[in-house]
Specification:
Elements: E1 4-9, E2 18-23, E3 26-32, E4 42-44, E5 49-51, E6 54-59, E7 61-62, E8 65-66, H1 77-87, E9 90-98, H2 102-112, E10 122-125, H3 147-154, E11 161-166, H4 176-182, E12 186-189, H5 196-205, E13 209-210, H6 226-233, E14 238-242, H7 250-259, E15 266-269, E16 281-285, E17 288-293, E18 296-299, E19 304-307, H8 311-320, H9 325-332, H10 334-339, E20 354-358, E21 364-368
Parallel strand pairs: 1-4, 6-9, 9-10, 10-11, 11-12, 12-13, 13-14, 14-15
Antiparallel strand pairs: 1-2, 2-3, 5-20, 7-8, 16-17, 17-18, 18-19, 20-21
Length: about 375
Amino acid sequence: MPDLILTNARIPGYVGLQQLTIQDEVILSLQPQSSMIPAAAFLDLQGDWISLGGIDLQINGALGLAFPDLDFDTASKLEAINQFLWQHGVDGYLPTLVTTSVDNIQRSLSILATPSSRILGVHLEGPFLNPAKQGAHPAEYLLPLTLDTVRRVLGDYASLVKVMTLAPELDETGEVIPYLRSLGITVSLGHSLATAAQAQRAFDQGATMVTHAFNAMPSLHHREPGLLGAAIAHPQVRCGLIADGQHVSPVMIDILLRASNYEQGIFLVSDALSPLGLPDGIYPWDTRQIEVTDGTARLLDGTLSGTTLPLLVGAQNLVKWGCDVEQAIALATSAPRRAIGLSTDYIGQPASLLRWHQSQSGELQWERLGNFES
């Protein structure tokens, strides 16, 4: 006998109302809504949206801990971060290590190698970035993009790294991207001055992602579409997007979503920094400081460095700016799963789903359907 049947649910990617059967806190079945009244206990969702939790493929830290600063004294904070993110609707994430010393990268990787149900792997954002588009990344730790330096950075932790952001124009031999793909690492292009031709060459070699679309790359141009233009036109490439309203204008987000067929080519990331979960103020960031104001983080010289807004705020922002609710939810939940090859199947998933609805004012709101944390 099932524990619970959810009725009259709308699910992104499914047509019409759906019915989910839950047993032992796991989704047992999903099927079109039946006209029969369930014999078991049921919850009528009254047409609200249901989704899996969010997946954040680019998050730099939280609760005051920057992932590149991980050491054995701060490792215990990871469980608190896992719980914090789960409470904010995130089922899993890739701790992101921005450009730092190889020693720091190796130390952080060694700690992140401890199995965790929330940590899906690691995103290395650097150190193989174009100095002309380094943004807030420290120039002294940028490295040339060669097989030797890549092997040195990965060390013994290649299987832990799921995504690596790099500037493809730095690879003079054309060997690096195929090598990373042979290790099962998803290659994302970013912090780059790549032309459309250079980007297309990288896509032909196996790159399938772009890091924070529009940011740290040339703008779209009608005669040189550049990295982003090549990515939008490529049917197998997906672009991460920061939907905080500061990194990219809502109008440009609308253009990007329309041009990329929504979740077929775009997924949301938070790009959140270590003050995520803390109030606005001035915080340490490597050897420098960042100032957080209304959820936007900048170096003290004004350089945009990230946000302190959770992932699902991006989906809520998209709806506020006119995006369809179904598409906004998918961009934070199913789209990032597809970007790194995770299943989007509901069957067998824990029943701690997200329930979404719109308030009378049109604001998108969500809550965890259950407290199942398996």
